[in-house]
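FAQ: What does the model actually see?

It sees only this:
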Amino acid sequence: MFILFGPALSGFLLGLSLIVAIGAQNAFILRMGLLRSHVFWLCLFCALSDALLIVAGISGMGAFVDSNPALFRIVALAGAAFLFGYAGLAFYRVFRPQLLEASSAKPVSLARAVAICAGFTFLNPHVYLDTVVLVGAFAARYEDAARIAFGAGAAAASFVWFFCLGYGARILTPVFRNPRAWQVLDALIAVIMAALAAKLLHSALQA
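And it is asked to produce this:
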């Protein structure tokens, strides 16, 4: 059993390194965590989505994704449009500041929140390159049970990160009682989304 700890730890550290960087998905989970809106289900959705992609990667789907530039281009264009749209909404919120707390924020339905989260997750082709191709490549170094342990470690990193981010966000609640803090957060989200959209658009044109 101890012999599987090494691959599992390697998978956990790799998975954590791939998802900790601030991106569209993390920014959305942070915002919903601050609003205390559907936190459990959104964190679970993100973690399970990563786990699904990791399973695909260690099962050999990485080579298929890596060898289909046309598929990459289609997903990149769709993702860029989606992110530009969300960036526009975030910029709109910046100029309409209001006091947002869990008790006073306008509720968002679970279905809509999951749909937005799904867009951030599956319309980002770099998610496939990182999670499926890269994790798949590292997992290929292991065999049988060790490969499964590596994948389990990588998936565990997603569960730990998203639930810590979603529920840890409420620690910042006192800061976000100030509408100015929400303006700063939404401005940051808008810049991140626009930058990622521009990057995806450039990647699609270069593919």
